[in-house]
Fold:
Amino acid sequence: MFWGNEELKRQLQHLIAPYDPKLLDRATYRLTIGAEIYVSPTGVGSDTKLKTKKLLAAGEHFQIPAGQFALLITEESVSVPQDALAFISIRAGYKFQGLVNVSGFHVDPGFSGRLIFSVFNAGPGSVHLSRGEDCFHIWFADLRDHTQMGEKTGYEVIPPALVKHIAEGVQSLSSLETKINETEKKLADRLVSVEKQQSIMWWLGTLLLGVGITILVTSFKKAPTAPPTAHAVSNPPLSVHVPPASQAGSTVPDPVTEPTPQGSGTSSKTL
Structure:
């Protein structure tokens, strides 16, 4: 039979430390988040696989990203009598946000220590919590015809053996979407960089080609003309004497067939 409120009032002040009557609920007692937590890494940005357990100050906030696991230790230390059995769960308001308890739903008879909840955020967004937040329930029930099997020691801190199972992180849909978006952004930035480099190289090549053409044209214009050859100097062009227009009606003697005038010193020749 489950313990009612009056039985819980009588028993829990000896079974739960620290005990707060304000946390007594309808046939249950609300447990709170303690000083130590661990949230599995998303692998995005600074949330790497090298992260360790985190110690929280009183009232300090933290978040569990979508698709990630977390280990949460209770502030309270719980003792379960040998003739009783306890059941634990997450409160409904946190379940509606997507937070699921995956560590088990009962506490063995004879257990003594803090409880560690392994939770998974199956919701679409991060779940925000804080130290001292009463987000867990615990119920107690009597056992009949039970044989005692000795005490079972609980936890005081989150052991490394539990952390290593989720330290590799979980490739959730949310983290995959973030990685895809980051990759697309890097690719777009790279394409812009390559286009800028190509544009600079094109303009530089055009500039160098223009300078080369200018230098080539200038060198052709300044090239010296070649001097006249020896043959052209030794054989000057033959000049032809044209008589003036006043002598156009007179007959020019043929130097071959007609004799030169007397006294010129040149004898006539007959062919």
User: Anything to note?
Assistant: The chain has two domains: 5-170, 171-214. The longest helix spans residues 173-221. DSSP finds five helices and 13 strands in the chain. Confidence is low (pLDDT under 50) at residues 263-271.
